[in-house]
Amino acid sequence: MRYVSFRRPDGTASFGRIEGETIVELASDAVPSLKAALTDGSLATLTDGASFAAADVVLLPVIPDPAKILCVGLNYAEHVKETGREQKAHPAIFVRYADSLVADGQPMVKPTVTERFDYEGELAVVIGKPCHKVAAADAMAYVAGYSAFNDGSARDWQRHNIQFTPGKTFPGTGGFGPALVTPDEIADLGALHVQTRLNGQVVQDQPVSDMIWDIPTVIAYISAFTPLSPGDVIATGTPGGVGDKRTPPLYMKAGDKVEVDIGTIGTLTHRIIDEA
C-alpha cells in the first residue's frame, strides 16, 4: 500500500491511500492522522471514506508530526571518501525537527544565512511499532514503510563546530515524501537506487545495498539509546556526489528543481526558493 498525508480541498488535514490518480481518505475523528493509525495499529483495517483526485489535494510530509527524526551521517563509503573523514565503528547520528519538513511538490527553502545549500537524497524509514533496545535480527518487524528524503543542508552552519545539527534543521529544508510505501510493495529494497537529480542532471546514484550500516543495524543502534515510537523517521544517509565536495561546488539556489528518485518508492520533487 501507499499512504499519504494531505490537505483536503477545504484545507482540512487528512490522510489516505493512493489508488492511481485517486486518494481514498481514511481519516476519522477517532484516527485523524497517519501517525495515529500507526500508533493504534489500525491502518490496515480502516474504513474507506471520501475519494479525491490527487490533483485536487495538497500533500503534506508523509508524517507531518513525527516525535523524532533521526538522521544517519556518512553511511555510504563513497560519501565518507569524498568528505575525507575516517570510517568510524558506529554510525554518526544527528537530529532534525518536524518544522524542517516539507512535502513533495512544495518548495524547499534556502536560508538567507547560507550560500552553501546542498542536496542529500536519502531513503527514509518510518517506524510502525514501539521499539526499544531491539536486536538487529528483529528490527525489520518494526518498520511501517519507506519514503524518500532530501536532507537539505546549510554546509557552513553544519561546520560551525563538530556537531551537524545547526546546518541540518532550518525550517523548510527537509523534503519528505511523497508516500509511505509498505514493505510488501518492494521486491528487493537493496537493489533500489537512491538517485538525486538537480535540474535534470544526475548528481547522486547508488543502490541501497551500498549502505555501510544496513537498516536493521541502524534501528538496533538507535533504539539502544532512545525508544522509537510509531511515526518516528530515520533518514538513512546520503550517497556520494554531494554538491559541497564537487569541483567546483554545486549548491542549490532559487529556481532550481531537485528530485530524489528511489525506484518503486517514488520520486520526491521540489523547487528551491529563497527564504522570505
TrEMBL record:
Alphabetical keyword list: Hydrolase, Metal-binding
InterPro entries cross-referenced by the UniProt entry: FAH, Fumarylacetoacetase-like_C, Fumarylacetoacetase_C_sf, Rv2993c-like_N
Top-rank taxon: Bacteria
GO molecular function terms noted in the UniProt entry: hydrolase activity; isomerase activity; metal ion binding
Gene3D superfamilies in UniProt: Fumarylacetoacetase-like, C-terminal domain
GO biological process assignments: carboxylic acid metabolic process
Fumarylacetoacetase-like C-terminal domain boundaries: 68-272
Boundaries of every Rv2993c-like N-terminal domain copy: 1-40
Family: Belongs to the FAH family.
Protein name: Fumarylacetoacetate (FAA) hydrolase
Source species of the chain: Sphingobium indicum BiD32
